[in-house]
C-alpha cells in the first residue's frame, strides 16, 4: 500500500495545472510592454509609399527608430527644398 500512495504523489506532481506551473516561473510579462517592444522592433525599419500626384510616387524608408523629432526635421527639410523642384510636371513625358 505504501508504494501506491508514493506513486500517486509522484503522478500528482506531474499533473500540476498549467496556471500553477506558470506561477512558479513568475508572472507573465505585461502585455502592454510586449506590445511596446514589438512596435519598437517593427519601427526600426519602416517603409512608406505614397502617390503624391498622378505621375509621381514617393517612397520613404526609415532605418532606425523614427521619432517625432526626426519626422519634424524631415518635414522642415522638405519644406526648405520645395523650391528645388519644378512647379508643374511635364505631362507630355512618357510614363
- Please give the alpha-carbon distance between the first and last residues: 89 Å
Largest sheet: 2 strands, antiparallel
Based on secondary structure, the structural category is alpha+beta
Q: Into which percentage range does the β-strand content fall? A: 15-25%
What number is the mean pLDDT? 76
Low-confidence stretches: none
In DSSP terms, counting alpha (H) and pi (I) runs of 4 or more, how many helices? 4
Quick one: how many beta strands?
2
**What is the string of SSEs from the N terminus onward?**
HHHEEH
Give the overall silhouette: elongated
Please tell me how large the radius of gyration is: 30 Å
Strand order of the largest sheet: 1-2
What is the percent of helical residues? 40-55%
What does this molecule look like?
The structure is a single chain. This protein is α+β, with helices and mostly antiparallel strands and about 100 residues long. It has helices spanning about 1-15, 20-25, 30-45, 70-80; strands at about 45-55, 55-65. It is elongated and about 75 Å long. The longest helix has 14 residues, at about 70-80. The protein has a domain at about 45-85. The protein is built from four helices and two strands. It has a two-stranded antiparallel sheet with strand order 1-2.
Write the layout of secondary structure elements.
Blueprint: H1 2-14, H2 18-25, H3 31-43, E1 45-53, E2 56-63, H4 68-81
Antiparallel strand pairs: 1-2
Write a concise synopsis of the structure shown.
This protein has 95 residues and is of the alpha+beta class. The chain is 51% helix and 18% strand. It has a domain of 41 residues.
